C-alpha cells in the first residue's frame, strides 16, 4: 500500500464547526488510479491538500509506504507525493520565466540536466524554446498545465494528486494531458488520486472510486480501467 489514511478529519479554522473531511479511510496501491468523485464543496480538494502535505489534518493519520507522515513532508515523502492543481498558475512564480521554473526541481533534488536535455524533454509536452522565455501570464492555460505536469514528472514521484487537472482546458488539451498521464503510469507504475466531479472521466481513468458526500468518503467500485 503506497498511501493509507485512517480517520482523516479536517475542519477549516473559520468554518464554525463544519467538517470538510470526516474520518476518511482511503487507500492507494502502487500503479493504481483512484477517483474522488463528488459535488462541489463535498471535501475532495481538502483531502487532496492533506494527502499532498499542504495542510495538516485536524485529526487522523496518514501513511506513505507504511510510514506515518505529517506535513510539511520532507525527503522521500516530499519528493514522492506531488499535486497537480486545476489552476496551474498556483504552482508557478508569476515573476519567473518558464526556464527558471522548469529548472527548479532539478536543482532542488540535485538531478542532472542540461539546457539541451531540458529542451528535448519539454518537446514531449508540446513546449519549445520560445516558451521558456515567457512568464506564466504569457502562456496559455494548456501550455501552463503541460509545463506543470512536466515539472512534476521530472522528479519521478510515486503518487500524484490530480485535482480537476483538465476541467479548465479545451478538449484537445484535456486528451493530451490524460494521455501523458496514462502513458507515464504504464511506464513508471505511478499512482494517481484523481479528483473530479466528472463521473465519466472517473470511470474511464479509475479502477476504484470513492464517492464524496458532505465530507464522507465511501468506496465504490468503478468499471475496470481501460489502460
Ligand atoms: N479555506 C477555506 N476556509 C473555510 N472553508 C473552506 C475553505 N476551503 C474550502 N472550504 C469548505 O470546505 C468544504 C469542502 O471544500 P472542498 O474545496 O474540499 O470541496 P470540493 O469537493 O473540492 O469542491 P469543488 O469541486 O468545488 O472544488 C466546503 O464546505 C467549502 O466551503
UniProtKB/TrEMBL annotation:
Family annotation (SMART domains): AAA
Keywords: ATP-binding, Nucleotide-binding, Transport
InterPro entries for the chain: AAA+_ATPase, ABC_transp_ATP-bind, ABC_transporter-like_ATP-bd, ABC_transporter-like_CS, P-loop_NTPase
Name listed for the protein in its UniProt record: Peptide/nickel transport system ATP-binding protein
PROSITE patterns assigned: ABC_TRANSPORTER_1 (PS00211), ABC_TRANSPORTER_2 (PS50893)
UniProt source species: Sporobacter termitidis DSM 10068
Gene Ontology molecular functions: ATP binding; ATP hydrolysis activity
One BP term from GO: transmembrane transport
Membership in a protein family: Belongs to the ABC transporter superfamily.
Domain ABC transporter, residue spans: 3-227
